[in-house]
Amino acid sequence: MSTFAAVDVIAAKRDRHVLTDDQIDWTIGAYTAGELAEEQMSALLMAILLNGMTSAEIARWTAAMIGTGIRLDLSGVGRPTVDKHSTGGVGDKISLPLAPLVAACGAAVPQLSGRGLGHTGGTLDKMESISGWNAMLSPARMITALSQVGAVICAASDDLAPADRKLYALRDVTATVESIPMIAASIMSKKIAEGTDALVLDVKVGSGAFMKSTDRAAELARAMVELGAAHGVRTTAMLTDMSVPLGTAVGNAMEVAEAVEVLAGGGPADVVGLTLALAREMVDLAGLDVDPADVLASGAAMDSWRAMVAIQGGDPDFVLPEPKERHVVTAETTGVVTHLDAFAVGVASWRLGAGRARKEDPVQAAAGILCLAKPGDSVVFGQPLFELHTDTPDRFAPALEDLSGALELAPPGTAFAQRDLVIDVIRR
Ligand code: URA
To answer: For residue 357, what pLDDT band results from cuts at 50, 70 and 90?
Structure first.
């Protein structure tokens, strides 16, 4: 492989040139091997953030990241494989009912997931509220679980796109996380390395999401759909609203409880609607001719969920932890809820102990917030709006501060139009 002087690669991007394939391959290889200094990679990341990348550069950068690790071979699982990735939101527990539902439709769902950081929750933290459940599976055990159950939710192993771990940590401390080429390459390198045949991306838009504007979310979605296609992974992106928390529950154990309600045929309408919309897209990409709504109603998705929990060491009849303390916030006037800010609720839940400030911090399984009034609901004076849960009551005061102003109430009778949850669907 050619070698380059790092300063020449940095200068090329600084001066808005297109990096060559050799320059990209060398950069990713040298950085992963510890042969490119952190300050040089930092400068290059900032040049990429400011000057962008062409589609060809993003594709090569992603391929080079995949090449730093293994690519799983899921051809032995005996079913079409299809995964879903969400860019992260508040109350986003959709993976929990979705993976077993799509498995019950006949596909295999290799749902490699992460932990929460900041105001958005992580699927692994939620699942770990179930005692005994184990997020760490070897690739061989993952393939066994996929063959037997059709769905697995587990942590990505260290050898899938290891360049991403280093790059993500550096982006985090150099104010370069927001670069669309870097987000697209980060997400897609891991998803492509995981070996899925097809992928549905849930790109969140709004205050509770990474992407605050629809234009930026659409740009990210298009970049990821292109990357999927370039690597033979049939990929669709759905842009979905994250200005309001999804469902009622925001917090680890309480989101598991809400996911189980959905699998049992109940649950909040927005969670059920988004689960079915994503499931339809996944089933379609997997080439299966079945309506996920019928499968959900039949109880087959609940059977898959119980099998999925059990095969990873959890008790399917689990009892979720209860918080030590609760605090209820009530309406100060009568009216119609016109907005509930996802970011404020996410931060308040994080403060109660549902999230972590540093990667190594523990989370409280029972901490979080029940959002008891959602946009469009009429409420009367004194009616409960939020129920806050925590094991550490000194956290109530800062969480209540975050929530002040999170919910907007208009006079009774004010007309209100619900936002569409699915804003757009981007296919190749
Ligand atoms: N999620 C990822 O995996 N990577 C990013 O860069 C952003 C969100």
So the answer is: confident
Q: Which letter, b or e, does each residue of 242-263 get, where b requires 16 or more Cβ atoms within 10 Å of its Cβ?
A: bbbbbbbbbbbbbbbebbbbbb
pLDDT at 120: 79
- Catalytic site residues? 85, 164, 171, 186, 190
Domain annotation covers residue 22: yes
Ligand 1 atom 7, closest CA: 183
| Closest C-alpha to ligand 1, atom 3 | 187
261 with 333, same domain? no
Please give all residues whose beta carbon lies within 6 A of any atom in ligand 1, as ranges. Answer: 87, 168, 183, 186-187
Residue nearest (by alpha carbon) to ligand 1 atom 2:
187
| Residue 217 near residue 209 (C-beta atoms within 8 A) | yes
Tell whether 294 and 341 lie within a shared domain. Answer: no
Nearest C-alpha neighbor of 362 from the set 392, 386, 387? 392
Q: Do 175 and 34 share a structural domain?
A: no
For residue 93, report the distance from its CA to the centre of ligand 1, in Å.
Answer: 18
Please state the domain count of the chain: 3
Q: How far is the CA of 182 from the centre of ligand 1 (A)?
A: 8
Q: Which residues form the domain of 126?
A: 82-311
pLDDT per residue as tens digits for the range 28-76? 999 999 999 999 999 999 999 999 999 999 999 999 999 999 999 999 9
222 lies in the same domain as 359: no
